[in-house]
Structures are given as C-alpha cells and as structure tokens.
Specification:
Blueprint: E1 2-18, E2 21-35, E3 38-44, H1 54-64, H2 75-85, H3 90-108, H4 112-115, E4 128-130, H5 135-144, E5 150-154, H6 160-170, E6 174-178, H7 185-195, E7 200-204, H8 212-221, E8 226-228, H9 237-241, E9 247-251, H10 252-255, H11 258-270, E10 274-278, H12 284-291, E11 299-300, E12 313-314, E13 317-319, E14 322-324, E15 334-335
Parallel strand pairs: 4-5, 5-6, 6-7, 7-8, 8-9, 9-10, 10-11
Antiparallel strand pairs: 1-2, 2-3, 12-15, 13-14
Helix pairs in contact: 1-3, 2-3, 5-6, 7-8
The chain binds magnesium ion.
Magnesium ion (MG) binds near residues 178, 205 and 278.
Amino acid sequence: MHIDAKPIDLRLTTPFRISRGVQSIASNAVVQINFNGHTGYGEAAPDEFYGETVETVLACITQFAGTLGDDPFAIEDILNNLEHIIRLNPSAKASVDMALYDLVGKLLGVPVYKLLGLNPTHSAYTSFTLGIDSPTNMAKKALMARDYPILKVKVGTKNDIAIIDAIREVSSATIRVDANAGWTPKEAIKTINALAPYNIEFVEQPTSPRDLAGLKLIRENVPVPIIADESCVTVEDIPRVAKYVDGINIKLMKCGGIRHALKMIHVARAHHLQVMIGCMIESSLAISAAAHITPLVDYADLDGHLLIDNDPYEGVSVVNGKLTLPDSPGLGIKARA
Ligand code: MG
C-alpha cells in the first residue's frame, strides 16, 4: 500500500466563534491509500487544543508511510502498529483509519455501514451549530437554519440567557447548548437552571475538562442532562467520567477514527451512558465517515461540512436534518464536480 497526504484549507462561511476562540479557516489534510488500482480516502482535522496541527499530521503520515504493509484488511494490526510508532496524534491516525475502511469497502464493493453490519435507515439526525455572536445575530442565524430540527448553540459568554431567549423567540427547534468548558461550576449551575425553562435537550461540557468534581456538582444541581466532550477524548476516559455525566461526545478526530469510535460506543453503553457523535470543521469526507456509524448513537452533531463554502467532496447528505448515508462502496464520497 502507498499513502500520500496533502493539506486542504476549508473556508468557514462565517467566522466560527466558541467560548475559547474564533476560526475562519480549518487547515486539514486529506490522505489517500493506493492499493491494486483502488484508492481509499481519509481526512485529518487537527485541533491545537488536542496538540495537533496540519504540519504534525503530515509528519505523522510520512512516518507511517513505510509501515502499512500490503494487506488493507489487516486494519487491527495496521492501526495498532501506528500506536507503537507515535503516541497521541489522533486526527492523523483517524485519517489512516478512515482511508482503510474506505479502501476495504471499495475492494468488497460494499458501503462502510454494511461492512459494520449497520442499518442505514437508523442513521441519526444531525444538529446545526450556531457559533457565538450577539443575541440578535444568533436569532437571525437560527431563522436561516430553519430547515434543521435540532440546533446546537455555542454558549459560555456573559449573554447566554439573552442568546437562548432570542433564539427561542424565533425557533421551536430542539436546542442543545455547548459551553466548551466556558463556565465555572457555579456559573454553570446558575446558567443551566435559568436556561432549563427554554426546554434545553442537554448541555455539553459546561466546565473545565479535568474538573470532574465540578461536573458532579453541576449534574446534582441542574435538571438538564450533561454530556462530556473535552473531558472524554479516548476510550480510557469513559470509566473515569461515567459517574459524573449522562453521556459522552465521541469524535473521530479525538479518538483516532472509526475503529476507536466503535470501541468507545460499546464501552459507553456498558457504563449506561448516552452516546453522541460530533465533529470538528471537516469536509464531507470525514463527516461521511462519522455518519456511517450513526445507527449506533443517540445524538449526532455532524455539520462541519455545512459550515464551509469550499467542500471538495460530496458524500452523506442531510435531508430535513436526517443524515442520509451514501450507498456506494466504502465511505461513498466523491470529488465535487
Ligand atoms: Mg462540544
């Protein structure tokens, strides 16, 4: 097998603000693995918060290049081997994982959901994310997103209650909020209780990733379920956080790809946790990879490709909020014409 990687810049339609910063370009990488005339594609969406950049991804792929061997079906062995070559670097590993599933699906002539034994009609509905802005502008964005039955609203500001009030004024969509660790436990308890009457489905990562005591205190004092995102990165985190939250948000770019995401789903279920699958700013390539496993999850937030205006690929489509899985072999993606 031969692997190549190239950087791609994804342009956000509008600058995307969360509690810890703002982004207008996502510098990702696309990898391709060639084998016997077939090509598998994968994508890395590195996040500096988790210690990666596009440069570290490209350096990892160069290091991995000589070690893939010549059996794309040996996914377990190949990916285990990457863990021995370098620690962490989950988005670089996710891109290889995705490309292998794409390749194997193409070699067998089946879509990835079928390879995994999943029912495509059970795919999830995705939320559409509203980045932080003034309450008036966020209400405008909510109106523009009226085709999506679920909104995920970024919070963690001084204006959180005014934001949700303005959005509720114009929208009856299901609302989830994500503070991206932007509150102290005290602020979280106060704010979530004030937001609860607006009918909030759940709150993602109210407080600092390492503050499990804070999560526990919040969960005991608010009437809204709590989902861990930044506090739950890999499968090893699940037993640690399980007692303190109602669910976890899995991302291919945090955990290292489809193979690890599947493990996380099953381990989370063993801990009676709800399961959400989320994303970074990603093209339809990586979003399609995550979409293939949504028949196994409760909630999806797979809208990274809907927030950019230069998506190089097409794959999963979103019809009235529901992820519609492509049924061509592998991930089912192709270059946009
Ligand atoms: Mg989140």
